[in-house]
Amino acid sequence: MQPARTCLAIILAAGEGTRMKSARPKVLHEMAGRSLLGHALAAVSAAGADALVVVIGPDRPDVVAEVRKLAPHAEIAVQAERKGTAHAVLAARESLAAGHDDVLVAFADTPLVRPETFADMRRALHRGAGVAALGFEARDPTGYGRFVTRGGQLDAIVEHKDADAATRAITLCNAGLMALEGKRALAILDAIGNANAQNEYYLTDAVEVARAQGLATVALIAPEAEVQGINDRAQLAGAEADFQKRRRLEAMAAGATLIAPETVFFSHDTRIGRDVLIEPNVVFGPGVTVADGAVIHAFSHLEGAKVGPGATIGPYARLRPGADLAKGVKIGNFVEIKAATIGAGAKVNHLTYIGDAEIGAAANIGAGTITCNYDGFFKSKTIIGEGAFIGSNSALVAPLTIGAGAYVGSGSVITRDVAADALAVARGRQVEREGWAAAFRATAKARKAAL
Ligand code: UD1
Ligand code: MG
Known about the structure:
Blueprint: E1 7-13, E2 30-31, E3 34-35, H1 36-46, E4 51-56, H2 61-70, E5 75-78, H3 85-89, H4 93-97, E6 102-107, H5 115-126, E7 129-137, E8 146-150, E9 153-158, H6 165-168, E10 172-181, H7 182-190, H8 206-212, E11 216-221, H9 233-253, E12 257-258, E13 264-265, E14 271-272, E15 277-278, E16 282-284, E17 289-290, E18 295-296, E19 301-302, E20 306-307, E21 312-313, E22 317-319, E23 323-325, E24 330-342, E25 347-359, E26 364-365, E27 370-372, E28 382-384, E29 389-390, E30 395-397, E31 400-402, E32 407-408, E33 413-414, E34 423-424, H10 436-449
Parallel strand pairs: 1-4, 1-6, 4-5, 7-11, 12-15, 13-16, 14-17, 15-18, 16-19, 17-20, 18-21, 19-22, 20-23, 21-24, 22-24, 23-24, 24-25, 25-26, 25-28, 26-29, 27-30, 28-31, 29-32, 30-33, 32-34
Antiparallel strand pairs: 2-3, 6-10, 7-10, 8-9
The structure holds uridine-diphosphate-N-acetylglucosamine and magnesium ion (MG).
Uridine-diphosphate-N-acetylglucosamine is lined by residues 12, 14-15, 55, 79, 82-85, 87-88, 107-109, 144-145, 157, 159, 173-176, 202-204, 229.
C-alpha cells in the first residue's frame, strides 16, 4: 500500500453574491438542507483533505460561525481585498508553506462537485502532474476561462476577457477548481502576475507558470451539471433539482421504491434502507434515517427523525426532530411526533400530537390524543407504559406517567399519574333521564302552536 498523502483543501468563499439579493452571503444559502459552503467542505473532506482553509471576505462573522460549526478544525483566512483567485488562494499562505503533498482549490459556490472528482484530481497529481485543472464542455462558454490543450496536455487557461476570437471559439471551459502539487504550490502561486484585462491575479495562470517551471499540467473533464456555480436564486433552484435527481437515483439503486421519484425531496444526509416504500410527495428535512422495510405514505414531512424497521408513517404525518420510532410502529394521518420515543409495535393512528414523551411498546394511542407538554414557560414529559391504551380525545397534561397496561377513558383530561393496569376516567359522568326528550318535544310543540 502507498503511504497516505496529506492533502490541504483551500475553499474560496469570499464572494458576497450580490445577485442573490439577500442579507445573507451567497455561500450560506442552502441546498438540500445544508449551506453551499457546507457542501464544499463535505466534498473535499470526503476526498481525503486532512487540512482545511476557508478564505472569506472581511467582516463576515456569519461565515466564520458556519465554518466553526461544520469544521471546527478548519483555518479561516481573510482576503482583505479582492485581487483575483490566485490572490485569494495565497491568503492561505501559512498552510501552503507547511508543505502538504496535495493542494485542492475549491469554490464554495459550486456545491455539486462529487468527492470522487476531487479524488480524481488528486490522483492526477500522484501520477506526476504539477497542476490538474477541472474542465467541462460548456453549452454557452461566454464568461468562462477556456482550456487551450495540445495532445493530452493542458497548455494554458485563457480568461474570456483576455481571449481572442479563435480562443473564444473553444467550448472546453474551466470549472475553476484546481489541484496543485503541494511542495511546488507556493512557488507556482507566487510567480503569478496580474498583467491581464482585469489586473487580477488569476489562479488559472498556474497552468502556464507550472509549465514554465517544467511541470506537467493536465485537464480533467466533468459533466457541466456537476460543476455549475451558483450566482442567483434560479441557479440555486437548478442545483437543488440536480441534487435531488442524483439522490433519488441513489435511493432507488440502494433498494428503495419511489413511486413518483420526482415528488420526493431528500436532504443531504437522508439515510434510506432497503425495501423502503416512499409514496408520492414526501419531504425529508435534515437528519432522517429510515430503516429497512419501512413505508412512508404520501404527503408526509420528516425532519431529525428515526424510523425503525417495518414502521409505517402517514399519509399526512409529521415527524419533527427527536422522533424516534422503534420496529413496526404505526403513525397515521394528521399525527405530529416531536422529541418522543415510540416503542416497538405501538400505534398512534389518527389526529394526535405526541411531544416530549416516551411511549412503551405495543401501546395504543387513540384518535385525537394530545400530550399537553408546554405551559407557556416550560416543557414537561409524558411517559406512557407498555401496552397502555389511551382512549380517543384525551388530553394528557404533563408531567405525567401512565403505567404499563393502564386504560384511559375517552375524552379524559388526565392531570395525575395513573397506576399500571388501572382505569383512569376524567370527564363529566354520563346522566340519563328516561323520556326527557319526548316530554321536551311535546311541551315545545304545544308552545309553538299557541303562538
Ligand atoms: C473563474 C475562473 C474561470 C472559470 C470560472 C468558473 C479565474 C481567474 N477564473 O472565473 O476560468 O471559468 O471561475 O466559474 O480563476 N474569489 C475570491 N477572491 C477574489 C476573486 C474570486 O475569493 O479575489 C472567489 C469568488 O468568491 C468565487 C471564486 O473565487 O467563489 C471564483 O471567482 P469569480 O470572480 O466568480 O471568477 P470567474 O470570473 O467566474
Ligand atoms: Mg464566477
